[in-house]
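Our preliminary data section would be incomplete without showing what the modeling component actually yields. Below, a chain of 253 amino acids is followed by its predicted structure, encoded as tokens that our downstream tools consume directly.
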Amino acid sequence: MIRESLYFIFGQGKSTDFGVTNVNTESGLVEESFLGTRQVNETYTKGRSEPYTEGVKREAKQFPLNFYIGDKYEEKRVRAIKRWLDVDDYQPLAFSENLDVVYYAMPVDTSDLVHNAARNGYVRLTMKCNSPYAYSRNTTTHTFNVSSGAEMIELNNKGDVTIFPTVEILKIGDGYIKIENLSDYTEPFLFNDLKDNEILKINGDKEIIDSNLFGNERYDDFNDNYLKLSYGMNRLKVTGKCKLRFSFRYKYL
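Predicted structure:
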């Protein structure tokens, strides 16, 4: 996808605004990373040839980015490109082949301007991402009305790995809210002792809970099972009168 794209968007800038075109510098077939780098955490014990596997550590994505800066480029334009790329934090990076897939990246290591001494050339640099994944744009569902006290909701995780959505809940009447994911058989998501018209926002990725009535003091009323959505269709059984909606980004390998 990266090598096929003609232009890219980084931060608030579009490469074509700087007269920059994505290029391949190799002849013949081009190479792109397939799966991210990973390390297996394992322990060997005396008398045992097979290790005990203790999980996998996924490395953040990293890939080359080369772009042509045009014929007879001027120093003013080169300086503008430098200012655009000189960032101190990860910025959204998307390629024209599919602008709905977003990396969060920044240039690292050595970057080079390769030219022919006649102001014709290209820039060669390495982009490092903040995680092993690419992401979709943020998706927010419509509001589900569970005023009956029980409802089945289906959410389709179109990414490649499990995600933890943000859940926004408006409680109707005092009581509890329980969400069971019937597709993966995990423990339910459960809040007790909620108040009428209380609004909760639960960020599952960062494990942050906020209430319009009690601030961040609702952790004691939560069973600490953040809702997760596995790959594919997730059937959620919601019990307890409320209105709720979900927001999330798909993750791609």
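The chain is about 5% helix and 50% strand. The radius of gyration is 24 Å. Preliminary results of this kind motivate Aim 1 of the renewal.
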